[in-house]
Amino acid sequence: MSQTLERGERTGAGENPVKRQQILAGAQKVFVTMGFDAASMDDVTRAAGVSKSTLYVYFRSKEELFTALIAEERERYFAEVSAIFTDPGHPAETLKIYGTRLATKLSSKEVIRAQRTVMSVVERMPELGASFYESGPKRTIGLLSAYLDSAVAAGTLRIEDTELAAKQFIELASAGMLRCRLFGYKTESPAEEEIERTVNGAVRLFMAGYGVPA
């Protein structure tokens, strides 16, 4: 085997991770600057500094590019969140940590921009909206629901429908913040104090309804 192959510098078509990241970085710049609808694959090739033939080896459409951008960020987020759900014996403390992380993420510039992008195209591209929901909100609900199941099994929560309870907590933890950001009523992410106050209230309400009396 040649030195080049041993170093992993030669890869098959569409398999070079450095080139892939170069394309994604260019796509992100274009989508942020121009918006998803106005952007074209030609714009991405110019921003990424690659040929159109190279671009299409990696991504067949700007929808695939957008999905890949979202997926990369989500994998990092879910890896972080999964590490939070390790203690079913103390749900109040766990939910406070998780709620703070969730509210901060949902109201961030990047997530708000992604949600607006999906909302702007979902009527003519419902499959993109469905994919966005499946890999994001639905996965979030499933992850939290699994933790609530473990807390129920540990005897620290009493919940008949953990999926419904997960949806309720997500709404409580972002109450009054997400929609203000989404519709541009507030142009900046909420302050730490607002997030803390909102999440503390969410945990109190949740534990009042589903907690086990001491």
From TrEMBL:
Domain of life per record: Bacteria
All copies of domain HTH tetR-type, residue ranges: 17-77
InterPro entries, per the entry: Homeodomain-like_sf, HTH-type_TetR-like_transc_reg, HTH_TetR, Tet_transcr_reg_TetR-rel_C_sf, TetR_C_Proteobacteria
Molecular functions (GO terms): DNA-binding transcription factor activity; transcription cis-regulatory region binding
PROSITE patterns: HTH_TETR_2
Keyword field contains Transcription: yes
Signal peptide: none
Swiss-Prot/TrEMBL keywords: DNA-binding, Transcription, Transcription regulation
Feature: DNA-binding region: 40-59
Record-given protein name: TetR family transcriptional regulator
Taxonomic lineage of the native organism: Bacteria, Pseudomonadati, Pseudomonadota, Alphaproteobacteria, Hyphomicrobiales
